[in-house]
Amino acid sequence: MSLTTSQLLQKKKKNILELWMKNQLADEGLREDLISNEDLRIQSEELVDSLVGNLTSDNFTDLDSDEWSPVIEILGGIAITRARQGFSPRETGAFVFSLKEALLAVLQGEIIDDPKKLFEESLKINRLMDNLSVVTFETFIKGREEVILRQTDEIAEISTPVIRVWDGILALPIIGTLDSARTQIVMENLLQEIVETGSSIAILDISGVPAVDSLVAQHLIKTVSATRLMGAECIISGIRPEIAQTVVHLGIDLSNIVTKSTLASALQHAFKVMRLEVKKVIVKNN
Amino acid sequence: MDKIPILRMGAFLLVTIQVDLYDRLALNLEADLVQMVNKTSAKGVLIDISAVSIVDSFMGRIIGNIASMSKILDAETVVVGMQPAVAITLIELGLPLKGVHTALDMEKGMNLLKSMIDTSGDDEDDDQSAYDLITE
Amino acid sequence: MRMMTSQPMILSLSKDTIKVSQEQDVVFLKNRVKEVAVRIKMGLVNQTRLLTAASELVRNMMRYGGGGSCLIEVVSSGRNNGVRLTFTDKGPGIPDIASAMKDGFSTGKSLGLGLPGTKRLVNEFDIKSKVGEGTTVTIVKWANG
Predict the structure, then answer these.
(1) Domains of chain C and CATH, by start
(2) What is the per-residue pLDDT across A76-94, written as a single tens digit (0 to 9) for each?
(3) Domain A5-153 belongs to what topology?
(4) pTM, 2 dp
(5) C-chain residues within 8 Å CB-CB of B58?
(6) Which chains does chain C touch, 3 or more C-beta pairs < 8 A?
(7) Homologous superfamily of A163-273
(8) What is the pLDDT of residues B121-134, one digit of tens each?
(9) A30 touches chain C (CB under 8 A)
(10) Strand (E) positions, chain C?
């Protein structure tokens, strides 16, 4: 037996790929809906080429060495694409693990008469593939995190609708937690809309905000002050009793702000300021 | 030296700031405006800053000064058309411009001035009708 | 094991130094800062915050430091780009930085909001001063943030 494991695997590259593809196609978790078999084959071939091609007898355990960076790059690319396409972690894991099985099976078929060597070499392959799996998972999770971040941005964008409830009156219902970044968007949208519509009253409804702490209160006060500087009035409505309690317990001073318990009473206040009246029409039957 | 023109319209003085203020220009405006209020016995000052993209603490102070000085000379000051970004920045800077009246645009500012002068002026009891006249 | 990047480094992508000694220089400086902010697609409100902060700092430099220079840099950290401004003067320096950073404190004839107000407008703020040698103020404003 003169061939080293790396040479041996390089010689058997075709077998490895075939075996791996067979494993993958036989797997229950095969996602033909997300990736076609041809694409899967191209991906797999690229990875096997790069992996086996970069294998030397002394770099088995050292993933930091430069020879591995192309392999890690390919694997990372695959993992990120899969995260975006919606593959589950299990399916992504199976992709790498089935390659390990293929490698080990080929090794077993080649080293028949030397159990000690087979064991040692298998261990090395195991360790290498485990490391690569970890890299795959890290990248996969990073890909998922990017998806989440993007969605957070999108939610922030679409979750702050400014509604024209009356000529000169705007309403902005806030639903969900208010953090600094979100208040920033809320405030900018509201002020921009005030300029565009020439509205002199804006109602900020916080009935959908689960909790108000001092930071949120500070953001609200800031928004109200900025509105006033522009020459419009900002009313805060939808203040639930629990929120009134916390605000007072925290010692937050909202006395300079017009606050109403419901959007309806805020609207009423706005009508009064604008000297408008809503009347019931009396229908006469005669 | 550059000057910002001050227009007189009835009992009011109108100032439209079309350029970004630098310190000397702002100081000149403060001095000129107070002189004009005194000379014309104006009842109101309207400052349009819709074209101003930056108001820092110095300019903010000048605006506050103009309002306080005019007040002493019995004239109200209304600042109109502040850009959203400028408003946010001023609040974060810690300058809420207390004592300065604000309005969205020239027309609303003018109405505000008129209503303030009507209510604080003679003992006319029906300021309601005066407001209606204005809004019509 | 391969380490994944944790805290991204701040990289400087471009540099430009402007000397400020008279009022015209101030206008020129503000225009340059604005150009840079627009180039990295900074939003309007953040642009206004940055320019207002620059306006405060350059006034301090003119009034207390007798002029100086400003280094304008485009910086990058991870996926975010930003503008870093470094104001350096060779003025008398600030003896008590802690007090200078308090709201309402001023040695000159102003409201005394300059430094703490400026700090609220930017993402990063650093001030170093030595009495008799001068003052350096560095601020960073990210395009998103």
Answers:
(1) 12-142 (3.30.565.10)
(2) 888 888 888 888 888 888 8
(3) Globin-like (1.10.490)
(4) 0.72
(5) 55, 59, 110
(6) A, B
(7) STAS domain (3.30.750.24)
(8) 444 444 443 344 34
(9) no
(10) 11-20, 68-77, 80-89, 124-130, 134-142
